[in-house]
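Can't paste images in this forum, so I'm doing it all in text. The chain is below; anyone willing to post the predicted structure tokens underneath?
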Amino acid sequence: MKSYKKILLAVTATLAFGTQAIAADKLRIGTEGAYPPFNLIDASGKVVGFDVDIANALCAKMKVECEVVTSDWDGIIPALNASKFDFIVASMSITEERKQAVDFTDPYYTNKLQFIGPKGTEFKTDKASLKGKVIGAQRATIAGTWAEDNLGDAIELKLYDTQENAYLDLASGRVDGVLADTFVNWEWLKSDAGKGFEFKGDPVFDNDKIGIAVRKNDALREKLNAALKEIVADGTYKQINDKYFPFSIL
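Text version of the structure:
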């Protein structure tokens, strides 16, 4: 789902020798906590969502105890490399830029990018039609990067620290539309705040592979890959998928 435009590549020398997080008594799962339905903080203060359920299922397969740690999105990779947590399950896109700083597991779902805007308004998504519009996206994400690279000279692009803030400005009319992950947009459109809005056009990017990030050379990567295969094979993944979506996102 998300891509650093200006990634922080501070990797300490210890990373060259790899780490053995799997040997720890308790593993820490890093996530954002502000990206429903994938990761969010519920009314009781608990971190929940698709990402969290997947992470906990993987921990169960690996037979290790895990706890969830939240982080601001912009700093989540530096926090991983500073050992604030052991792996990131936060709807993170696998990109070549990020691979310079972390290793990724196999993808655990595939994302798309799609515009949303007010119902009943003309909103074509080709570059010429979008010229002069104000478009919102979350900073340091695939959506923000795609909009800047492909539409930056045609639109006014407003970038936000969280996806929720982008939606707030859309609902209040401060932006004409928002570009974000299709599944995250789908969730917001079901909410009271999103009922006056709709998808605009087809997805503009539809092969964004989402993976779990670990520190460079960490043996935990292969443990997670093995556990991911297990939860797909035994139906656990489908149960989690069906809890959040009426369609498969694998």
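The CA atoms of residues 25 and 230 lie 22 Å apart. The longest strand covers residues 197-214.
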